[in-house]
Amino acid sequence: MKIHAILRTGFRLMVLTTSLIFTQTCPCSAAEPVRVFIFAGQSNMVGSDSKVKDIAQFPPFRGLEQPQTNVRFSYSIGRENKMESNGWVDLQPVNNVVGPELSFARKVTQSIDTPIAIIKVAAGGTHLGGDWNPDQPIGFEMYPLALKVIQQSLQQLEDQGHEYRIEGFMWHQGENDMFNEEYMANYGKNLKNFLMRWRTDLKTPGLRFYIGELCTKTIWGMDLRPRMYAISLGQKEVATSDQLAQYVPTSHVGVEIGGGVGLHYHYGTLGQLEHGVNYATAYLQNIGVDTEPGATTHELRKLPYTKRKPVKLLIMAGHRNMEGERAFTQELAELDTYKHLLKPQEKVAYQYNIGGGYRTSSGWEAMRPAGYYDNFGPEVSFAAEISQHSGEQIAIAKFTHSGSQIIDWTPEGSPAKTRHLYPAFIEFVKKSHHSLTEKGYDVEIAGIFYHLGENDMSFYPYRKDAASRLQAIVNQSRMDLELSDLNWYVSQQPPTDDERVNQVDVVSMVKAIAEKDPHLHHIKVFNLPPQQKKLVITTEGIVRLGESIAKYYLEQ
């Protein structure tokens, strides 16, 4: 009893001491200077349409609603009515909105033992060509405002006796420039000048920039696809030509579910939290910090198969729900019937390319949840169901991009050429097959399991073409893989129910093409647990989705 009491008292003293150090001398009082990060941009940098109370819905990010007392924060956020810290405060949500800086800071401070500080200046609906123009700022004149806030914040650090180093500039902006023809055409040129001016004005010639990709999962990623593509080309041009500029993928992160058809313009709570992790991952990799220690240990040293029997290679493909956008391992652990799925399935080899290449396996691993935000897709329950009820040797290869639409998977693609997935998908299938056959196994591609695009169901032009685009993918894949009888198993959840799209009976359209093709199987998964939001299936539903697809396959 006395020992326990002493330990508790010691803990209180330790917390008190830490608090005093931060208040009076900052955790940077040691030799390490404060690493300062700048966050700037428009609404998806602000955190528009996110809510602090919703953080609790997403297990990997719980706790970020609380202040991070070990991180300094200075900010000016908004347009007409700005929210300003007027100096340094503890990092915390502002105005009940979730910004990417919250998850960024937690991941960085968990990975390096160095004090950090964040300066944020952002306002929705602002242009790089106008508001953020360093030479001739107009509108809300964001460039001079940001420069003033940054310089004042840095001066305050100096006045308090703290050394600092500007470590990185996180930039997320571009949606509004695509509405102005001149700004859109010159985005790359303007961004190059923007970076040059910051390095000059802050006297930091080696300042590294992290340029966030515009999210293709939003409605603008569909109905304004060519315009967003033009902005992305400008961003990539700068990231390619500037060795200190890096393009950070974000189109795979979660997006707010809107009213009506469900599509939205902003990341929302989940997307903002994942957005911050993306920036942190990019930064940590640049300084040589392994963001997933021990990841290579998942690779199988020896495949769990005998050469006396064939190996059935099962390909899983799709978008948001095949990737598992809102299915989390922490919630899986709470499901008594399914929590065993957290353990590696040693008899099933698994490799993956998810998020459009954001995360890939280094080779064949034992089947396990392997999402990049503690999430997982239907593959874990799919594999378990087949293993339990079949004597087949199975290997699973998964290729997904939750920020894609069906048009990205078609052989011809769209005007947004860099979003074309079909060539990479076919190459992934071929390589997965080859990596098994070269080891001497008799391998059969037993089927492609594709979950029909969720966002396509909410956008009329895409919904009406979904079935014909699917047919084109199926037909071309059989030719390119030289498998004329290749089985496709297409699962479909209840499509968006809204008067703006209900005139297209997409279920009947998919059923019609399947009835004409004996090797195209239409799996209606209409008995899943109720969804909290349109479009996305959550943890228990994703598990049930995998089971349903597997049971259909076994019945065949």
- Parts with pLDDT < 50 across at least 5 consecutive residues: 1-30
**Going by CATH, what is the homologous superfamily of the largest domain?**
SGNH hydrolase
Number of domains: 2
- CATH architecture call of the largest domain: 3-Layer(aba) Sandwich
The whole-angstrom Rg is 25 Å
Structural class: alpha/beta
The total count of helices amounts to: 17
**How much strand content do the residues show?**
15-25%
Mean pLDDT: 93
Task: Report the strand count.
Answer: 16
Main CATH class of the largest domain: Alpha Beta
The biggest sheet amounts to: 8 strands, mixed
Characterization of the model:
With 556 residues, the chain is α/β, with parallel strands linked by helices. The chain has two domains: 259 residues, SGNH hydrolase (Rossmann fold); 247 residues, SGNH hydrolase (Rossmann fold, 3-Layer(aba) Sandwich), CATH 3.40.50.1110. The protein is 37% helix and 17% strand. Strands 1, 2, 3, 4, 5, 6, 7 and 8 form an eight-stranded mixed beta sheet that branches. The longest helix is centred in the N-terminal third of the chain and has 23 residues. It is globular and about 75 Å long.
